Prior knowledge:
The chain is α+β, with helices and mostly antiparallel strands. Among the domains are: 3-30 and 252-289, no CATH class; 58-143, no CATH class; 298-360; 401-447, no CATH class. Helix content is 25%, strand content 19%. It has helices spanning 18-28, 122-126, 144-171, 202-212, 223-230, 241-244, 254-259, 266-269, 284-290, 374-384, 389-393, 426-431, 442-446, and strands spanning 7-8, 16-17, 58-59, 72-76, 84-87, 103-107, 112-118, 133-135, 138-141, 176-182, 188-194, 215-220, 300-303, 308-316, 321-326, 337-342, 346-348, 352-354. The strands form 4 sheets. Strands 3-8-5-4-7-6-9 form a 7-stranded mixed beta sheet, with no helix packed on it. The protein has a 6-stranded mixed beta sheet with strand order 16-15-14-13-18-17, with no helix packed on it. A 3-stranded mixed beta sheet has the order 10-11-12, sandwiched between helices. A hairpin with a 3-residue loop joins strand 17 (346-348) and strand 18. Helix 3 crosses helix 4.
Amino acid sequence: MDNNKKFMKLDRSLDVSEEELKTLQELERNDDGFKDEENTKYKKAGSPIAPLGGGDALYFDYTDEYPAFEDVIAIQFQPAGKIYWYYYPEQKNPGNELKQDDIIVAYSERGMELAKVLNKSMDDYKRQNKINFIKNGFVRKADAADFEREKQLEIKAQAAKEVILRVNKELGIKMKIIKVKYTLDDTKAIFYFSANGRVDFRELIKRLAYELKRRIEMRQIGVRDTTKIMGGLGPCGQTLCCRKHMHNFIPVSIKMAKDQNFSLNPNKISGICGRLFCCLGYENATYEELRKDYPQEETAILDRSSNRKGYVKKVNAIGQNITVFFPENAEKKEKAEEKTFPKSALEFNGGWFINLPQSDSNDHDLDNITPIVAKEKELLRESANPENPEKAERPQNQNSRRPAPKDPGNPSNPNNKRNPNWHGNKKNFKKFPPRKDGRENRETNKE
């Protein structure tokens, strides 16, 4: 038997083939987040956010007081990127006010960059630790000169991308260049790339630093980060969630797809990044709450009405029912079958049971009901029609005789429903009219 056709269990999910299992396990591997925005290596209390090119920007220390909500701003450096909280109490002074969608110049882990001011959320603010706040990172509001410099740096970044593609070809390095970015102070060039496994780019950095005359930083990112940078449209027709509003990746598992009764076909539950849909996690909390009152798949359950033991095959929390599989039992002459039961029939008492509600037929004494035979049917017809028992005994067959056709040649006939020349024989009606004495023309009928 082909190995791809062998079925195996994926914890408590439906049966999937070995090939689909490997694909699903590959889809379930999640990246940690947007790697080009945060590096936990230098994230320590009181340490600079970037040892090289980070200016005087520092993380809050444990000795610092927790900043007030009015003294901080929420910003992002990338579209739908990670949210950073910067301490900027001067915004309360006249002329320094900041509002949503303002563009500022601030220090990030990469260096000086343009950032966008976001609307602050009190709930998100309360979830931050003290060391998540950054002080001395705000530089100024962005002006026309900053926007013009950003455009010039984008042109330089395209030229630098052509340089690294040429050098990679010369050195035989296999990597895919996703994006090239220059810091706003034009002191560092950052190359984002994706590759299978680790890449030895020590010689590559030497060549790039010689040709570009700048500090070089190489950042390897995953498929989700690549999709976030490049953007696109999802299967729903909308802009990708990671590009539009998802600031952090949420962990997504195959269990979420199973709980929501999705097909475990990898082509139907994976996005353009090749990983599971991020939107599977949006309604996961609701499904977990709804499934608390249901047994899990493959749980043994007993039907008390038939005293048969089965196993839960599917749970439909939205439809409020479960599907139970009953295996075959040759001794009791029971065939394998699947049945669907409502949630009201479920009962848990040390184990799961099915108690169907008593039907109305149990209130009647079925033994007192005698079968109706043919003679009794005839008596019932006579009792239903006492005035005309003969008609009730032998009902007329409506299809025994054809209805007479109408006479279109004599519209003045009050009984236009019947043609006087009709004798029940279609052949005679067409060729031979009736005799005047009312007798049939037998000689012509023989023909």
